[in-house]
Amino acid sequence: MPNESVDLVYVDPPFNTGKSQQGAAAKYEDAWPTMEAYIRWIRPRVEQVHRVLKPTGSLLLHCDWRGSHHLRLLLDDVFGPDRFVNELIWSYGLGGSSPRRFARKHDTILFYSRTDVYFFQPPMVPATSARMRGQLKKAGDILDIPSLNNMAAERTGYPTQKPLALLEMLISACCPEGGRVADFCCGSGTTLIAAKRLGRPFVGCDVSDDAVRMTEERLGSV
Question: Cα separation of 222 and 209, whole Å?
Fold first, then answer.
């Protein structure tokens, strides 16, 4: 892709869970021998993201507890620590409980900007206080959006599929109208579907033939 040609990159790469991610319609391998090997794999991809972002562009990198602290150091190195904007918490309400720890019920989305001049439009969400009942307020850095249950109409059978509501909120907040959205690990295509629904041009790719096929089919029905 040309230099400085994208307004927003959202990427939900493999998390290095150490196992194969299996769904009803697709699967992918998600294992590296060490965290160092995983970071070596993702570094050149982050560097390419930095290259294609416009000066006003931003990156949203989706990760979990395994890699978030390693990835933040990587992003500090590639983008610069002063380009960190937010650590967003996607609280999805599901997750395995354990007698040895608190239940893990969130992912992390690291928000970095290309420069100190970047687009941001705060999302508005329903207020929860009695004083502001029925009004809207600016969203905080905890995004309380349910994950997809087994009966969700938008579920495709792709493992680790994210909900449209999450991507529509992120794109609306971090990409201007008419701005280009990119997702280089597009999976089931949710980012591209959300961009199309919001009227943003988009580009996506994935190493999985299943992912590309599923994304094309979903885009054709939007």
Answer: 20
